[in-house]
Design goal:
Elements (H helix, E strand, L loop, with lengths): L1 H23 L1 E8 L6 H20 L7 E8 L4 H13 L5 E4 L3 H14 L2 E4 L15 E3 L4 H14 L4 E7 L4 H14 L3 E8 L7 H7 L6 E4 L3 H13 L5 E4 L6 H7 L7 E5 L7 H12 L5 H19 L5 H8 L4 E3 L2 E3 L12 E7 L2 E4 L6
Parallel strand pairs: 1-2, 1-3, 3-4, 4-5, 6-7, 6-8, 8-9, 9-10
Antiparallel strand pairs: 10-13, 11-12, 13-14
Helix pairs in contact: 2-11, 3-4, 5-6, 8-9, 11-12
């Protein structure tokens, strides 16, 4: 009987040892993105891009022989959900690195926790100019700041001969700074803003604003709005008979915008993160199509580059602490899918790139290049 008990205990110890060893052989990181809801396309693209890089890394023996696992969680683009997820990552899972999120207002809620807990937070999607700050030491992003986007948008509208504009924007940490920066640059270039109004996230009726618009004399409407709100606005503008030129921010490139706006989306203009000219791009597209049976968008590429940057920094770190990884991130300089990957001291990517698009026959078309 004693022998049986001894053997059983020995097996338990051996199992515990093997389990513990297994855990040591896997590096676990967190990721919080909207995987369902109104802007799920962004989060799914980011998840796919990151996971593709993880698969490639693990096939090549991981990081110093250890495999990498990403714990993807769905924050639904909700600040409350994202904060809960992030706190669990930090306090329960003890992750040193987290990918996320998509909405700038969500990421803006996470950066103070990232700073206080000394956890790396890297986003491939959040572009708000408010996130460009030296005080957020542990925040990085591979998408260019919206300062670049607003400059491109103002330059575009001026070059189209537009003198008087109405501005309607989503009043959050993404839409408001982008609208304010655009208006400042537009005015500096000689343009006039004859109407402006911020609207809350989730608004579904713009008819009161449209009534006000009828009293203004404008040549175009500039609208940095989220995909759902932007789609509703464009549809209601067309239904009301307002046929002015419409310019939006990069969110108008999301499939949710076209799904809601329908035929009213035809002919709208919007900025978007420039397409990659990297020699690696075709290979990435082929691998992505094989794995996911669809063509990747630029946000999948930004996410792939974010994962590549993190893994390169981890490989160069003597210990996998947030401070060591942060130091290595700031030393990186390599050619990624979306261009040169090198970070400024404030965590912004050290490159620029926003292009111009329109919608023709329900398809995204790059202006001047006419590429789908």
């Amino acid at each position: 009987m004693r022998r049986v008990i001894f053997l059983a205990m020995a097996m338990m110890v051996l199992f515990a040892f093997v389990s513990c060893k297994g855990k040591q052989e896997t590096i676990r990181l967190g990721a919080t993105f909207p995987l369902t809801g109104a802007v799920a396309s962004y989060g799914v693209s980011a998840k796919n891009g990151i996971q593709l890089k993880v698969d490639e890394l693990n096939e090549a023996d991981g990081i110093n022989g250890k495999k990498v696992f990403i714990d993807f969680q769905d924050d639904k683009n909700s600040i409350r959900d994202a904060v809960n997820i992030f706190n669990n990552f930090v306090n329960i899972n003890k992750y040193q690195i987290v990918f996320g999120s998509a909405g700038s207002s969500v990421s803006e809620a996470l950066v103070p926790i990232s700073l206080s807990e000394k956890v790396i937070l890297i986003s491939p999607i959040s572009g708000s100019a408010r996130l460009s700050s030296d005080k957020w030491e542990y925040f990085f992003r591979t998408i260019p700041s919206d300062e670049e986007q607003s400059a491109r948008l103002a330059e575009w509208v001026i070059s189209d001969g537009i003198k008087n504009v109405a501005v309607i924007y989503t009043n959050n940490s993404w839409g408001k700074p982008l609208a304010e920066s655009f208006m400042r640059l537009f005015k500096e270039s000689g343009g006039n803003v004859v109407f402006e109004e911020g609207t809350p996230e989730g608004i579904s009726d713009f008819r009161t604003i449209i009534l006000k618009l009828r009293q203004a004399n404008f040549d175009a409407i500039i609208s940095p709005t989220y995909p759902k709100e932007g789609g509703i606005l464009v549809k209601q503008l067309k239904e009301s008979g307002i046929n002015a030129r419409l310019y939006g921010g990069d969110n108008w490139g999301a499939p949710e915008f076209r799904n809601i706006a329908g035929n009213s989306a035809e002919g709208v203009f919007f900025t978007f993160p420039s397409e990659s000219q990297s020699p690696q791009w075709d290979n990435f597209v082929e691998k992505y199509r094989i794995k996911y049976n669809e063509k990747p968008d630029i946000f999948a590429a930004y996410a792939y580059d974010a994962a590549t940057a993190i893994f390169e920094a981890m490989k160069k770190s003597k210990q996998l602490s947030a401070d060591e990884i942060r130091s290595q991130l700031l030393l990186l300089d390599f050619e990624g899918l979306t261009g040169r990957i090198s970070f400024k001291e404030n965590g912004d990517i050290d490159n620029e790139g926003y292009g111009k698009r329109t919608i023709e026959n329900g398809k995204l078309v790059t202006i001047n290049q006419k590429e789908k």
